[in-house]
């Protein structure tokens, strides 16, 4: 009983839902449109599986080690440029605080290697699952608030901004069929890219927080006592909509690059002729 209570408290304390289910589904689906036909063929008939598993890692958080896999706080490193690419160097920099500070860039590397292995193994089901899981962590890194210690606005009196941005705006306003991503590009240095994505994501944090504050300031209090008014949502979307859709599109683009690079690394295997038995 006590263990269960502790577990519930632990789960309740986890602040990170990450893009909400809709955001994760959107990223993995859009990434397929970026792939050349010979890679796209690996996923034929498995599109629903890809979407259905894209949020799986958010359901693994009963494992105490899972939470930090979804984010990284840049501040203890002195900003994104101070985050070493080498995991041992990062460990040396933060000491005992390393893991709880978040490890998403290195998890993306690990899950990318899983995808290479799945392509080599030659099983489309394994390829689809590895792709879903890679997509999750990669998409999480594109959520600006997954890169900062102020991840839920607590330090600036904006509690809840995390889910307002990544779930509230996405669920209310994003039209999946309006998003676009350019053709995938194979990148021999794909394992270094998460640090670029991290820097870009972190740079969006100050404006995101400012826009949430502005939307709050300019909207009247809801007479029914609800925390956020329809006007708040419209104003926050007017200010941050391009950022939300931009980050979804960038995540899909970068996922496409990662998939194509993994397929190259595996030796460009041909998809089985009847991948869905
Ligand atoms: Zn997540």
Structure commentary:
56% of the residues lie in helices and 0% in strands. The chain has one domain: P1 Nuclease (Orthogonal Bundle). It has helices at 2-13, 20-32, 37-40, 47-53, 87-94, 104-121, 124-141, 161-173, 193-203, 205-218, 230-265. The chain has 277 residues and is mostly helical. It is globular.
Which structural class do you get from the secondary structure elements? mainly alpha
Bound molecules: zinc ion
Portion in beta strands: under 5%
Give the integer mean of the pLDDT values: 91
Strand-and-helix sequence, N→C?
Answer: HHHHHHHHHHH
By CATH, the architecture is named: Orthogonal Bundle
Which tags fit this structure?
mainly alpha, binds zinc ion, 11 helices, 277 residues
Q: Summed up, what is this model?
A:
This protein has 277 residues and is an all-alpha fold.
List the helices and strands and how they pair.
Layout: H1 2-13, H2 20-32, H3 37-40, H4 47-53, H5 87-94, H6 104-121, H7 124-141, H8 161-173, H9 193-203, H10 205-218, H11 230-265
The structure holds zinc ion.
């Amino acid at each position: 009983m006590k263990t269960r209570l502790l577990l519930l408290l632990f789960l309740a304390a986890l602040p990170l839902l990450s893009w909400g289910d809709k955001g994760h589904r959107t990223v993995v689906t859009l990434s397929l449109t970026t792939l050349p036909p010979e890679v796209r063929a690996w996923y034929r008939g498995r599109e629903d599986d890809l979407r259905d598993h894209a949020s799986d890692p958010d359901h693994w958080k009963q494992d105490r080690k899972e939470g930090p896999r979804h984010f990284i706080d840049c501040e203890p490193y002195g900003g994104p440029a101070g985050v070493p690419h080498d995991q041992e160097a990062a460990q040396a920099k933060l000491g005992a605080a390393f893991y709880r500070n978040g490890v998403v860039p290195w998890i993306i590397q690990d899950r990318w290697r899983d995808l290479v292995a799945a392509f080599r193994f030659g099983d489309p089901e394994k390829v689809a699952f590895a792709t879903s899981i890679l997509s999750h962590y990669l998409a999480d890194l594109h959520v600006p608030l997954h890169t900062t210690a102020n991840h839920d606005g607590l330090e600036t009196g904006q509690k809840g901004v995390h889910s307002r941005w990544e779930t509230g705006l996405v669920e209310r306003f994003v039209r999946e069929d309006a998003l676009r991503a350019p053709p995938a590009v194979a990148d021999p240095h794909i394992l270094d890219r998460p640090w670029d994505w991290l820097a870009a994501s972190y740079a969006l944090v100050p404006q995101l927080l400012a826009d949430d504050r502005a939307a709050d300031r300019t909207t009247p209090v809801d007479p029914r006592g609800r925390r956020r008014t329809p006007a708040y949502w419209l104003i926050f979307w007017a200010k941050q909509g391009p950022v939300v859709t931009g980050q979804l599109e960038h995540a899909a683009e970068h996922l496409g690059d990662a998939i194509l690079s993994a397929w190259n690394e595996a030796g460009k295997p041909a998809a089985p002729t009847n991948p869905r038995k």
